[in-house]
């Protein structure tokens, strides 16, 4: 059994909690190893705030509970990172924005509370794209996150993906075994794919949104990110569940996803959506997709072609619906109740609002608030917003029809591998296209996960995406497990940070 | 459809975001590029299609109609509520003069 700090940081969620329970090592030893890893990785800028003392406190509690012979939770002794979108009592929560800098919530989000109740410990608050708006982690007020991965033979800093880019970087760099993400239009799956890790967005409503800084409420879903499918299954089980404080929380029991993991796919049909074969997709991505289909066939599944005819309209519809909801949700940042206030000399209330929001929001956030304000304004509402919501219905119907012919859908997670930081951020539209394969499942509220498949010729990870029908996280995880077992993805970034 | 500089300035004002002239110069072409791209949604025949209202169908719940049903979100927490206010005075939010 590993005893030195380096090997402790290599362990996953299941290995840590089982090792702690068996007494192979203490929760405190794991927390100390992870705290040290976080402290030595400032070059990645994955954390906005580190909370080493909180990690030790929670670990001590787990060790004490074990000594007393108390039952341990499913995440007992596992140190995790918390995306800075989750309100954490007494710990600054900013959504990586200036406008919430210094905001210290007097309450804890439901999802983070459930994780602490399950025995997890907090290493700190993870950097992200500001208000979860971005696909490269370049919109944070607290600076870019660098991926631990680099192209072979290059020192150029690469994107860890976004918006959960601090999460993906921290897990791939072995700073923590797992961390929370949130996914509005791909923000768990795309960063997972870029960094060679796993991440699942569950069915909309599985995880409570209470205490999660709102971006687009009809799309926002929390989910786990980790280095294996089983670790995602364990952590999702700890995060999910009905919450009366969230009006869209699903009143459904939480299945034992981990206990029911099964990579035998005999009798299952895997759909390959023909519309996902788009121009501009890297050949390496198409090759990995074919390989994924072969792996699932090897696991016993039958591969069938399916059609999702409205795929090409999903992304533009998303860029109406999500900004519209954002413009409404972000109206609350007014310089009165919390966060930043900018009060120019002699200014009145309206000027204070405008100055505070101009200083407090980054460019991408302003762009989306403005776009949302426009598509909701009188005279344009029906042409843009109502039309987009109708297309959302059509996208959902496409999936319903496809799931008549298959049990899960296999697709690439992203159209390219990671790209260098600063290479795409001058063109919002090109950046948006990163999520072209991820957004349709978001619009339809479906569970979807990314699992690492292979490396490109340049040595960068590629992920495969599995999408399932509503409520069938098990089917998604099982197909993910079948891919994981056959992909044999063991690559890890060489340490440079 | 494309928007003019004046229209973008109007949207910024509706969104309560102060925009300098230089910000507008940058934003107008970006805005138009995005709008031109979303215009493709107009190609789709959506007659007879209901706009989505809930992605997973469910009924809105009502909590029990009792005082302080959830102590965490009920009354009596003024100091918590004001704790993060940029300016709080005498148990209220402080704002610049509203009435001249």
Features:
heterodimer, A: 497 residues, alpha/beta, Amidase signature (AS) enzymes, 16 helices, 11 strands, globular, B: mainly alpha, two-stranded antiparallel ribbon, 2 strands
Can you give a write-up of this model?
The complex is a heterodimer of chains A (497) and B (100). Chain A has a domain of 274 residues: Amidase signature (AS) domain (Amidase signature (AS) enzymes, Alpha-Beta Complex). Chain A is an alpha/beta fold and 497 residues long. Chain A is 38% helix and 12% strand. Chain B has a domain of 39 residues. With 100 residues, chain B is mainly alpha-helical. Chain B is built from 3 helices and 2 strands; from the N terminus they run αααββ. Chain B starts with a helix and ends in a 7-residue tail after the last strand. Chains A and B meet through helix 10, helix 11, helix 12 and helix 13 of A and helix 1 and helix 2 of B.
Structure summarized in a few sentences:
Chain A is an alpha/beta fold and 497 residues long. Chain A contains 16 helices and eleven strands. Chain A has a domain at 5-263 and 473-487: Amidase signature (AS) domain (Amidase signature (AS) enzymes), CATH 3.90.1300.10.
Question: Mean pLDDT of chain A, nearest integer?
Answer: 96
DSSP strand count of chain A: 11
The coarse silhouette of chain A is globular
The fraction of residues assigned to DSSP E strands of chain B is under 5%
The number of helical runs of chain B is: 3
Which stretches of chain A are poorly predicted, pLDDT < 50 over at least 5 residues?
A: none
The string of secondary-structure elements of chain B, in order, is HHHEE
Helical content band of chain A? 25-40%
Reported CATH architecture of the domain at 5-263 and 473-487 in chain A = Alpha-Beta Complex
Report helical residue fraction of chain B: 25-40%
Q: Estimate the global geometry of chain B from the Cα principal axes.
A: flat
The count of helical stretches of chain A stands at 16
Q: Largest sheet of chain B, described in full?
A: 2 strands, antiparallel
